Amino acid sequence: MRGNAGTSGGGTVGPGKEGTGTAFPWTHRRVREALGEASGGARSGGAGEGRAFAGVSTDTRTLREGDLFVALRGPSFDGHAFLDAAASAGAAGAVVERGAVPSPAALVEDFLLYEVTDTLEALGALARYRRRALKVPVMAITGSSGKTTAKDLLTSVLSTTHSVHATSGNLNNRVGVPLTLLATPEEVDAVVVEVGTSEPGEIAALVRIAEPDLGMVTTVSESHLEGLGDLEGVMEEKLALLRGLQPGGTAVVGDEPSSLPDRTRALSIPTRVAGLSVQADPEWRGELLDVDGEGRWRVHIPAGTFRCGIPGRHGVRNALLALAAGDLLGVPAQRGFAAVERARAPGLRGEFLRLGDLTLVVDCYNANPQSTRAALQLLSDLPAHGGRVAVLGSMLELGPGSEAFHRRLLEWARTLPLRLVVGVGEFAVPAEQIREEALKSGASPRASSDSEGAPGSDGGAEFVGADTPDRAWTLLRSRLGGGETVLLKASRGVALEELLPRFQEAFGPRGGTA
Predict the structure, then answer these.
(1) Average pLDDT, the chain
(2) 351-507, CATH topology level
(3) Among 57, 70, 109, 133, which residue has the fewest nearby CB atoms (within 10 Å)?
(4) Would you state the pLDDT for residue 219?
């Protein structure tokens, strides 16, 4: 049986994003050059000269005949235990850690072994070699939120005039980034790579592999604070992408927070700022004109007017970033507009669903204070004759200040035109505190608004807390009539998306996008 010898982001690399193109020819000489001093050379199966590999794989389940298998180690697996499976599946060789394979003769004949100190570093070295063989621009994207959406938008914009290879999904870690680069086919005009982080130095390490020509930072906000410490730690980690740009490289950054443009310009690299505030460059400063029933804004910039296919003001910001970056590669404005108008939010990232007369906005893939505010702003911008309801699940990895972040966000939510707020997980206690405070003050449990954002016809919101999604559903079911607009927003670990079948059963079959 084939086993999984990869980590998240593992797999076989070969054709590009569209599944076509000629794979990079990995000869024995190129593998040795890529691994450099880290390699101990071919240990078994005869001479390596004249040998070539079909591609590079970290997962025996997707490995193709002739691939070079990289035996990664992880918290719950060791790729070296799958060498026999790799050989049986047709691998022509493997990259292993020195001393991990004491009896290479036990493998099939002509199976080459390249010994290195660290196979994860070796995977990065192979990817760096592939990147340096490319004669096309490489664009890297990071940010506390919106990076996957921005990556998809930029890929769509560039694809109107270029052949583009891009990160699949959000494979943005120390395995996913190398695999994206290794998968780049020969016939491309541009490469778009998403770069993630959860600890200091991770982006710098990935930039040393990707060596980008253009760096995009969508936003900087409180995220992964358990590893990055505080907002300044997040800022420094994101700026590492821009510090690592190739000579002559360009930065394209958003306008949130307001310090991001200034910090970027201080790096003395060519910079474009796109967004909705005065911090943005005039050419890439969007003017919001009107919003439709799915939260899609019509936007004007000096080059023209478009309706952003991604809902919310945060969707507009990501579209403006993609247009600004696409312009650097010569994409005409009208083609860029057409691309962002066709774009739609992927599943769990602001997806609109209609269940009878009830509308669901499903944004359960990730959550931090900034992205949760953006989702609540989207809900507030929507027409909602039956009332607006926010179901907010825990924002994870916020470190020691997590309780305060959750409380402050609910205090801000009190200013919005909402009818009901259900706090789940870490939001449960502050939601109940707000409810109790309202009762003690002699008011109804429906919180009053303040001057920061007067509610509309909904009035002040009722706040209730629930430890689990199951309890949240009980509270919701007794309060929903079926005509509301309901936001589900949480970190993925909360699993709010598991409520979708219950909504479907209660309010009608899923009718597609709203």
Answers:
(1) 90
(2) Protein-Tyrosine Phosphatase; Chain A (3.90.190)
(3) 109
(4) 98
